[in-house]
Amino acid sequence: MWNDPAPLPMPDDAEFERYVRQTLASLPPEIAVAAGEVVVHILDYADDETLDNMGIEDPLDLLGLYHGVSLDQKSAFDFAQQPDMVFLYRYPILNYAEETGDSLEAVVRHVVIHEIGHHFGFSDEDMEWLEANGE
Length: 135
Description:
The structure is a single chain. By secondary structure, this protein is mainly α. The chain has one domain: Zincin-like (2-Layer Sandwich). Helix content is about 50%, strand content about 10%. Strands 1-3-2 form a 3-stranded mixed β-sheet. The longest helix is centred in the last third of the chain and has 17 residues.
């Protein structure tokens, strides 16, 4: 479907994960508790099936993805089939940071907050507030 781009300098897994953990730790406590129920996966890219389902041709166009049912749509009577998940895609995030000149830490923070925001059913304005007002 697509060719892997030339290798980009990649932070090691521990550094990337540290940025994710820092972001999660900076969330207000009432949000952090519920966000702690979300499983975070860090992958190099989205798989072909995900890209096809979303109609995305260039894998660098997808930085992250929330998979689940947002809290504002869940019922106490719902039975969870699988845990809610956030997928973060390293190469697209790194590529975006390089293209924009933003720090990798800032881009990771933005993507994590955006995807966690979907878990809560937040609007874009809510996510912007959360990003600006985190610790």
